[in-house]
Specification:
Elements (H helix, E strand, L loop, with lengths): L1 H11 L7 E5 L4 H17 L2 E8 L5 H16 L3 E6 L2 H8 L3 H18 L5 E3 L4 H13 L4 H4 L5 E4 L2 E4 L7 H10 L16 H16 L4 H33 L5 H6 L34 E2 L5
Parallel strand pairs: 1-2, 1-4, 2-3, 4-6
Antiparallel strand pairs: 3-7, 5-6
């Protein structure tokens, strides 16, 4: 797993020497494996690590136990800890969102806050090849086009930094094998077994059915399909950028073809991969949901 992770980081140029990288750790197997692997690779990569944890306020004492587990990991490895808590059920109702969507919005608000204060230049999340397959399948079922089937991008540019996903070519089975090999435990989220959530139905029911009856390599196939879709979008955006540059030099307006394509392709999502595209100018937005002060603490609890 370590060699695959290092190779993916270098191939995609996800991290540069000297950068400060916050590892998003929920306490589950994937994020704990990412943290432990990055600890082993940090000298070779030349990076400074910290831990980022968000308590969603969904699972009560179980969620609090997860937070304590993550805090203990940070203390054991002498890493700075950025920790916050939110009330996902309240904001899901307020914003008229599903629980998963509200949780993601609040979690990413914490990531933005960590980047805004300069504690990290990038946040690394532990999305795996299995997560990629589930995402692509969910979006296909909902009727997504090329943008949706591109799945989870290795890099998501946001204000003050980026979110990186260095484990997109690592499987969940590899994650668990790695943790067992180093004797590292992890936390199990009881909601991951709840098939009331669409992602869990895909994970526990649909994907196993497809593996048994249609293609035992369906996870790899879906992950590769996402890679192909991303490359096609990058090529489309690069072509559009070249036409726009040529038209600008020649004093002409955009061609009809690319004016039509503007509604179909959002090139901002592919900006890390296509040169010459303008960066999104989204203003920095601090979390609107915090009910009290942020609980940023280092490994000593300060």
């Amino acid at each position: 797993m370590l060699l695959k992770l290092l190779s993916y980081i270098r191939e995609r140029q996800l991290i540069r020497a000297g950068e400060r990288v916050g590892i998003a750790v929920s306490g589950g197997a994937d994020s704990v494996a990412l943290l432990r692997a990055m600890l082993e690779l940090r000298e070779e990569l030349g990076v400074v690590l910290s831990v980022v944890h968000f308590n969603h306020g969904i699972r009560g004492a179980e969620g609090d136990a997860d937070a304590e587990f993550v805090a203990r990991l940070a203390r054991e490895h002498k890493l700075q800890l950025h920790q916050a808590r939110g009330d996902v059920p309240f904001f899901a109702k307020k914003w008229k969102l599903g629980t998963e969507a509200a949780a993601r919005r609040l979690r990413y608000d914490l990531f933005r806050a960590v980047l805004a204060e300069g504690s990290a230049s990038k946040i690394a999340t532990a999305h795996t090849r299995d997560d990629q397959a589930e995402t692509v399948l969910l979006r296909v079922l909902r009727g997504a086009g090329t943008r949706g089937t591109a799945g989870i991008h290795p890099v998501l540019k946001i204000e003050n930094g980026a979110i990186i996903r260095p484990m997109l070519e690592t499987s969940r089975s590899e994650v668990e094998a790695y943790l067992k090999s180093i004797g590292q435990d992890w936390r199990e989220d009881s909601t991951n077994a709840d098939v009331a959530y669409s992602r869990n139905r895909v994970r526990h029911e649909l994907l196993p059915l497809l593996e048994r009856n249609y293609n035992p390599n369906i996870r790899e196939v879906l992950s590769e399909a996402a890679e192909v879709a991303r490359r096609r979008r990058v090529l489309g955006c690069a072509d559009r950028a070249n036409v726009e540059d040529r038209n600008r030099v020649e004093g002409r307006s955009h061609s009809r073809q690319f004016r039509r394509s503007r509604s179909r392709i959002d090139c901002r999502a592919t900006a890390p991969f296509a040169s010459g595209l303008r960066k999104s100018r989204t203003p920095t937005r601090l979390p609107p949901w915090r009910a009290g002060p942020w609980s940023f603490r280092d490994a000593e609890g300060r």
